[in-house]
Write a structure and sequence with these properties.
heterodimer; A: 278 residues; mainly alpha; 71% helix; globular; B: 222 residues; alpha+beta; Glutaredoxin; 2 domains; six-stranded mixed sheet; two-stranded antiparallel sheet; 43% helix; 18% strand
Chain lengths: 278, 222
């Protein structure tokens, strides 16, 4: 019997389409709304119209990120991630690749300025979000949270499942930070290197993708022995999860690469364009 | 090149090398060799001592001698029909939400990996513990979702219970008072009878496809 759980986790009871509450997820959503309010206080008044307009767009990005996280963690996706590896992968894509850049884009300009003026904080952030460190953290979390024994051990309890989701969100924020965040300033990490950084991560996720898609047998006990949902067998479910990682992850990362390319192109165009008239 | 720039380049190259080495090492672990499901200690331990990942019962009685009705309405003599073959016997019901479909799906998936000869050498026999709801049509459709060669058998509740008892299994508990969507409590193990009898191997719920893949060839040629 499914009792009230504060966070979704793998279940032995048969799947039903009756909605289930996960208070921990709602608390997280409320917390993120609160964080946005605090960031606004921390940022102070926007300096000028362009900053105000930028912050207005940022608000949409922040709440878009919160919405994506909510969809990823709450019923039904969150609950299904205890039954299907493919649902777990969808949760991964949303938590690691979709929500973090939106949250970072949503931080008010003033908050970035305040952060940049705090040398201690910048030192920590500079180290953690150095592209090589960020990529290593991201890859380590990606690999660690897909190791079958880790998934089988953690996904069976709400706290274990929460630990995975927290790791994902943190790794996602660290990974996207060098691409999206203006602090710390890294003039050497321009558009070409940012694109290269994202491209490298599409290459590196080929390893877990291959592991899942071409595995002869189901790797995860919790999904292999879970009460079935629909007609998808454990092997097909695992293959679908692998494909989602490659295709879904690829779509998100290549979209970001394309955006960066056009921004780079338009900036180069500006630099090479006609001299401004006086 | 001034020393500061040189140091910077050296530091960056060093960082890149460590990250790539670390990532490569971690990546090679799961993909470098043949991709296989992880070994699990309990089943592995059993396999080390008995050769089977299931629970081996030595000096067991020969396969049971019972006759039930198959899905064409004909008598199915279990001992005669499975003689000389590996028989995998399971008691369950088609409305079962968890154990029965998982066992059947695992067996069907691993059976597909075997050679045609090996597939011919085994019979999966599913005896319904819920003959009231498991009509021949429903049983055929349900088993067909897994493998069309799986044998479905029906009998009266008393007949099925007595066969289960003879195998040392508890009889099924049908909670019919709770309404038409009642649950049936039943033994969760698949019993394997190898071609020559002499021993049995029990596969409880939790048996993975990796376990079946390990044991089926051994059960077919003990």
């Amino acid at each position: 019997m499914n009792g009230l759980q504060w966070w979704c986790s793998a279940q032995t009871a048969a799947w039903t389409w009756s909605p289930r509450p996960f208070p921990g997820v709602w608390l997280l959503v409320a917390l993120l709304v609160g964080v946005y309010w605090l960031l606004g206080r921390f940022a102070g008044e926007p300096a000028g119209a362009s900053e105000r307009s930028r912050d207005r767009k940022g608000k949409w990005a922040w709440f878009g990120g919160v919405l994506v996280l909510w969809i990823a963690l709450d019923w039904p996706v969150g609950a299904l991630s205890g039954y299907l590896a493919s649902a777990h992968m969808l949760q991964y894509l949303l938590t690691v690749l979709a929500a973090p850049p939106l949250l970072l884009l949503g931080v008010p300009v003033g908050a970035w300025r305040r952060l940049a003026s705090s040398s201690g904080a910048v030192r920590v952030v500079r180290f953690l979000t150095h592209p090589l460190i960020a990529l290593a953290i991201f890859q380590l979390v990606l690999l660690y949270t897909h190791v079958p024994s880790v998934v089988d051990r953690l996904m069976v309890t709400p706290s274990g499942s929460f630990a995975i989701d927290t790791l994902w969100l943190t790794a996602g924020l660290v990974f996207w930070w060098p691409v999206v965040a203006p602090v710390p300033a890294r003039p050497w990490f321009g558009y070409p290197l940012k694109m290269g950084y994202l491209f490298l991560s599409t290459v590196l996720n080929t390893m877990p993708y291959a592991f899942l898609t071409f595995g002869e047998l189901p790797f995860y006990g919790i999904y292999e022995l879970a009460p079935p949902v629909g007609l998808l067998g454990p092997r097909e479910d695992q293959q679908l999860a692998g494909l989602m990682m490659k295709v879904g992850g690829g779509v998100i990362l290549w979209t970001a690469i394309t955006i960066l390319f056009f921004r780079w192109y338009s900036r180069e165009g500006e630099a090479e364009g006609p001299a401004p008239s006086f | 090149m001034n020393p500061t720039t040189r140091n910077k380049i050296r530091r960056t190259v060093g960082r890149a090398a460590s990250v790539l080495t670390l990532t490569a090492c971690l990546g090679v672990l799961p993909t470098g060799c043949r991709v296989e499901a992880p070994e699990r200690t309990e089943a592995e331990e059993r396999a080390r001592s008995t050769g089977y990942r299931g629970i081996l019962l030595v000096d067991a009685d020969p396969r049971p001698d019972f006759v039930l009705t198959d899905l064409r309405g004909e008598a199915f003599d279990f001992r005669a029909e499975t003689e000389g073959k590996l028989a995998l016997l399971f008691f369950g019901y088609t409305y079962c939400p968890d154990i029965c479909p998982v066992h059947m799906a695992s067996l069907a998936a691993v059976k597909r990996d075997l050679s045609v000869n090996e597939q011919r050498g085994m019979r999966v026999v599913f005896v319904t513990a819920d003959p009231r709801r498991d009509t021949p049509e429903r049983l055929r459709e349900w088993l067909g979702n897994f493998d069309r060669d799986f044998v479905g058998l029906r009998g009266s509740e008393a007949e099925v219970d007595s066969i289960m008892l003879s195998l040392g299994l508890p009889p099924a508990i049908r909670d019919t008072v709770s309404g038409p969507d009642y649950a049936v409590g039943h033994a969760s193990q698949v019993i394997a009878f190898p071609p020559g009898d002499g021993f049995r191997v029990i596969y409880t719920f939790g048996t993975r496809q990796a376990d079946w893949k390990h044991d089926l060839p051994r059960l077919l040629n003990p």
